[in-house]
Structures are given as structure tokens and as C-alpha cells.
Specification:
There is one protein chain. This protein has helices spanning 2-9, 32-41, 55-64, 99-107; strands at residues 49-52, 67-70, 88-89. The chain is α/β, with parallel strands linked by helices. The chain has a single domain (2-112), classed as Rossmann fold, CATH 3.40.50.
Length: 113
């Protein structure tokens, strides 16, 4: 399913590392999938950014020590407490997301997020 989505959106050509919950001991909201991705990329989790559309994923990013941009797939779920852990929460979902908004947030020091 992940490969089909990445191919369909054109993102597959830009990603060299993809990790599925099927490859780790615990799925979201456990941080395993994000920590495994950081390990494969040889990256410090604190240097990673997660773009997440579901509350369990936002919780997993927080548990992994990663910055998180949350774009709720269902805007009505934006009040889920797990989304409160995201550094940037776009309550309006995909219609509110722009590359400029994400970049401006990422360009700020992590401590200001």
C-alpha cells in the first residue's frame, strides 16, 4: 500500500528509504517505525521531521523525539490530544497545507517550535 501511494503521488522518485510498520516490533503510536527510518538514514531523530496525517503518528513522532507537522486527514480529529504534541498543527487539513507554511516553520529553531 505504501509503494502504491508513493508511486501514485510521484513521491517514490524522491524517497530512498521507506519503512513500514510491518518491519518493526510495534506500530504507531509507538515510535519504532520513525526510529527505524532514522537508523537507516543514519540520522539523529532530533534532526528528522515527520509529516503526519493521523493522531497516532503524531504521538509516535513525539515519542521518537522528532519534529512533527500534523495535517489531519479528517479535520474534525484535529482536537485529538495526540495532535497537541505536533510542533505545527494545520487544523484545516490538506487545504491548509502549503510548502511555504511548512518551510517557514522548519526554518525556525527547534526550540521556538
Amino acid at each position: 500500500a505504501i509503494e502504491a501511494i508513493l508511486t501514485g503521488t510521484g513521491l517514490a522518485a524522491h524517497l530512498t528509504t521507506v519503512v513500514s510498520a510491518d518491519e518493526v516490533a510495534h506500530g504507531k503510536p509507538a515510535p519504532d517505525v520513525f526510529l527505524e527510518a532514522a537508523r537507516r538514514l543514519e540520522a539523529d531523530p532530533a534532526d528528522c521531521v515527520v509529516l503526519e496525517d493521523a493522531a497516532p503518528g503524531a504521538a509516535a513522532a513525539h515519542a521518537a523525539g522528532m519534529r512533527c507537522i500534523a495535517v489531519p486527514y479528517v479535520a474534525a480529529q484535529a482536537d485529538d490530544p495526540a495532535f497537541a504534541t505536533a510542533g505545527l498543527l494545520l487544523r484545516g487539513g490538506q487545504r491548509e497545507f502549503t510548502a511555504r507554511t511548512a518551510y517557514d516553520w522548519l526554518a525556525r529553531p527547534a526550540s521556538a517550535s
